[in-house]
Structures are given as structure tokens and as C-alpha cells.
Amino acid sequence: MTAMAKNATIYHNQRCNTSRTVLKMIEESGVEPTVIKYLDTPPSRDGLRKLLDDAGLKPSQAIRKRESVYKELGLADATEDELLDAMVDNPILIERPIVVTDKGTVLARPADKVAEIL
């Protein structure tokens, strides 16, 4: 049997149903997570780059394309660096929730993906 994660950090938006579901799944696994409300305290550019790298994602795979600011900024043809900059400047563009444990980092969409690292 695989050992459960000992700690977890969730980049959380309490208004997001998937994020709330993932938070509950983490808590039900017996781990009391560190909750980072990333809209209030967004990661730095380097911090976001590390989260995405650790999750094996490019900015284009972790950006919320349906947000109005995505269209307003004309990001459809943006480079990966431009997308990363836009996500740092407009954290609402960061797809959620991102979860970090001692077993790895995932973008927990769908919510069940969090089980991979718990």
C-alpha cells in the first residue's frame, strides 16, 4: 500500500466548485492543507513558473481561456511567456485548483486528479 501524502498546499478559489470539492477531498484524506487564496495572494512569476513546471504544464495548458480578460487582452495568439505574464498580472486567469504535496503537483481538473498525489 502506498503511503498517503503528509502535507498539501492548495491554490484555491472558494467561489469555484471544483476547488471546493478538491479541498474537501484533501481534508477527507486526513491531510490538513495549507490554503492559498491565490486571487488575494497570487504567486510570483517564478513561483507560478515552478508550479507549472512541477505539474508538467505549459501556461497555455493552465490558463482560463473563458475569462473575459483573456479575450480583452487578445491572448489567443500569445506566446507561452506572454501567457505566463498575463497570469501573473491577472491571477483570475490561473486555472484552479493547483495542489502540491510531497508526492507531486497537479492541476486538479477533474477533481479526481488530486488522488494521484494524496
Radius of gyration: 14 Å
Question: Helix-strand pattern, N to C?
Answer: EHEHHHEE
Strand order of the largest sheet: 2-1-3-4
CATH class annotation of the largest domain = Alpha Beta
Structural class: alpha+beta
Q: So, CATH architecture of the largest domain?
A: 3-Layer(aba) Sandwich
Principal-axes geometry comes out as elongated
How helical, in percent, are the residues? 25-40%
In total, the number of domains comes to 2
The mean pLDDT is 95
Please give the count of helices.
4
Unreliable stretches covering 5 or more consecutive residues: none
Task: Note the main attributes of this structure.
118 residues; alpha+beta; Glutaredoxin; four-stranded mixed β-sheet
Can you describe this structure?
The protein is α+β, with helices and mostly antiparallel strands and 118 residues long. It folds into 2 domains: 1-38 and 96-118, Glutaredoxin (3-Layer(aba) Sandwich); 44-94, Glutaredoxin (3-Layer(aba) Sandwich). 32% of the residues lie in helices and 14% in strands. The protein has 4 helices and 4 strands, in the order E-H-E-H-H-H-E-E. It has helices spanning 17-28, 45-55, 68-72, 80-89, and strands at 8-12, 34-37, 98-101, 104-107. A 4-stranded mixed sheet has the order 2-1-3-4, sandwiched between helices. The chain is elongated, with a radius of gyration of 14 Å.
Please outline what is shown here.
This protein is of the alpha+beta class. It has helices at 17-28, 45-55, 68-72, 80-89, and strands at 8-12, 34-37, 98-101, 104-107. The mean pLDDT is 95.
